[in-house]
Amino acid sequence: MIETQSLTKDYVVGADVVHALADADIRIDAGELVAIMGPSGSGKSTCMNLLGCLDTPSAGSYHFDGVEVSSMSTDQLAAVRNEKIGFVFQSFNLLGRTSALHNVEMPLIYGNTPARDRRPRAVAALSAVGLADRMDHTPAQLSGGQMQRVAIARALVNDPALLLADEPTGALDTRTGLEIMALFQKLNGTGITVVLVTHEPEVARFAQRILRFRDGRLVSDQGQTPE
Amino acid sequence: MIETQSLTKDYVVGADVVHALADADIRIDAGELVAIMGPSGSGKSTCMNLLGCLDTPSAGSYHFDGVEVSSMSTDQLAAVRNEKIGFVFQSFNLLGRTSALHNVEMPLIYGNTPARDRRPRAVAALSAVGLADRMDHTPAQLSGGQMQRVAIARALVNDPALLLADEPTGALDTRTGLEIMALFQKLNGTGITVVLVTHEPEVARFAQRILRFRDGRLVSDQGQTPE
Ligand SMILES: Nc1ncnc2c1ncn2[C@@H]1O[C@H](COP(=O)(O)OP(=O)(O)OP(=O)(O)O)[C@@H](O)[C@H]1O
Ligand SMILES: Nc1ncnc2c1ncn2[C@@H]1O[C@H](COP(=O)(O)OP(=O)(O)OP(=O)(O)O)[C@@H](O)[C@H]1O
Ligand SMILES: [Mg+2]
Ligand SMILES: [Mg+2]
Question: Most-buried pick from A62, A112, A151, B176 (CB within 10 A)?
Answer without folding.
Answer: A151
